[in-house]
Amino acid sequence: MTEIPAPTLDDIRGWSATVDVPTACAAFGVSRSYGYELVKRGEFPARTLKVGGRVRVITASVLAELEGVPAA
């Protein structure tokens, strides 16, 4: 399994509006499996959306959390 390198804030600003859970996990420095566990418990540090059978993470909420901006 290939580990996703930790992105910089500039990298994250270039992401699409939503990303998959493993990509968002790389930004927070947590493993993919722990990220999915947090999603299941409703405790992921950024906003998530369920689209069909998939979970997407809202990029703006990842940036807000990492920059310490209060959620809107």
Chart the SSEs and their pairings.
Blueprint: H1 9-13, E1 18-20, H2 21-28, H3 32-41, E2 48-51, E3 54-58, H4 59-67
Antiparallel strand pairs: 1-3, 2-3
Helix pairs in contact: 2-3
Report what the structure shows:
Helices cover about 45% and strands about 15% of the residues. It contains 4 helices and 3 strands. The mean pLDDT is about 90. The chain is globular. Strand 2 and strand 3 form a beta hairpin. It is an alpha+beta fold and about 70 residues long. It has a 3-stranded antiparallel β-sheet with strand order 1-3-2. The chain has one domain.
What oligomeric assembly is this protein in? single chain
Total helical segments: 4
Radius of gyration, whole Å? 11 Å
The description of the largest β-sheet is: 3 strands, antiparallel
What spatial form do the alpha-carbon principal axes imply?
Answer: globular
- What structural class should be given to the helix and strand makeup? alpha+beta
Number of strands: 3
Q: Provide the domain count.
A: 1
Helix-residue proportion: 40-55%
Which regions are unreliable across 5 or more consecutive residues at pLDDT < 50? none
> What's the SSE pattern?
HEHHEEH
Short description:
The protein has 72 residues and is α+β, with helices and mostly antiparallel strands. Helix content is 44%, strand content 17%. A hairpin with a 2-residue loop joins strand 2 and strand 3.
